[in-house]
Write a structure and sequence with these properties.
Layout lengths: L1 E9 L2 E6 L2 E9 L2 H10 L4 E6 H6 L5 H10 L3 E5 L5 H9 L4 E4 L1 H5 L1 H11 L4 E8 L2 E4 L4 E6 H10 L4 E6 L11 H10 L5 E5 L5 H9 L4 E4 L1 H5 L4 H8 L3
Parallel strand pairs: 1-4, 1-12, 4-5, 5-6, 6-7, 7-10, 10-11, 11-12
Antiparallel strand pairs: 1-2, 2-3, 7-8, 8-9
């Protein structure tokens, strides 16, 4: 299993939110590049980055920060937030970003997902499914829908998507543990057809064990690293154990 340490960016700062609420923004690190290099030193191969300003505005905002990390570290960068067009995806990939995350677009513009997978390949595209009470939320989690998270995953798989990030918004930034029940449901429903990354609620090494034993592809760790309840190097070692 892959551990994805996370950096969320708002107004150029490394921050975390509580349950996706922009009014709860908390600065968690002083320098994004030094933070990324710390992840690299701990043994991480990937980094998960989110453009919170972009998610809210529907367009890329903090692009230089992500390209800096891609250029100045060996980390593979996956980036989400405000990606709404093929042109934006192409620009990010040409700048050295390894994988782009399509969130709101998966629900509101499924053709974009189809086109992206067709043009760039399924390895370059991951669909972020953000759920509140099992229903998909969009636009930086500011809007809700009547679409069930497993139904969206099934539809995206039909469109050629192989990678998903599942976030239970009620868990995100809470350090209350992953939503193992919903993750298991998604893993069971997509077994053999998709790679699932858990996001939201990771607190201690027990959450890493839970996700690993569930057979998930990856787990995103944010606040737990910054607050010191999870050691990144230990998490990476644990993720690789059988």
């Amino acid at each position: 299993m892959i551990i994805f340490p996370a950096i969320d960016i708002k107004d150029g700062n490394c921050v975390r939110l509580f349950k996706g609420d922009f009014s709860t923004v908390e600065k968690v690190a002083s320098d994004y590049l030094e933070t990324a290099k710390g992840f690299e030193a701990a043994g991480a191969e990937w980094i998960h980055m989110v453009d919170l300003d972009g998610a809210k505005e529907g367009r890329p905002v903090n692009t230089k920060i992500y390209t800096d990390v891609a250029e100045k570290t060996s980390l593979k960068v996956e980036i989400g937030g405000g990606i709404r067009s093929i042109e934006t995806i192409r620009e990010y990939l040409e700048m050295g970003i390894t994988r782009v995350i399509l969130g709101s677009a998966a629900l509101k513009n499924p053709k974009l997902v189809c086109d992206a997978v067709e043009k760039f390949g399924s390895e370059k595209v991951v669909v972020g499914i953000d759920s509140m009470n099992e229903m998909v939320a969009t636009e930086g989690w500011l809007e809700s829908s009547d679409v069930h998270y497993i139904d969206l995953a099934d539809k995206m798989i039909e469109n050629g998507v192989k990678y998903f990030i599942f976030t239970d918004i009620s868990k995100d930034g809470t350090l209350s543990g992953v939503n193992a029940e919903q993750l298991q449901k998604l893993a069971d429903a997509t077994q053999g057809r998709a790679n699932i990354v858990a996001s939201g609620g990771v607190h201690t090494i027990d959450d890493i064990v839970t996700c690993r034993d569930m057979g998930l592809y990856g787990t995103i760790c944010g606040k737990s690293i910054y607050k010191g309840t999870l050691d990144l190097a230990e998490a990476i070692r644990c993720a690789g154990e059988k």
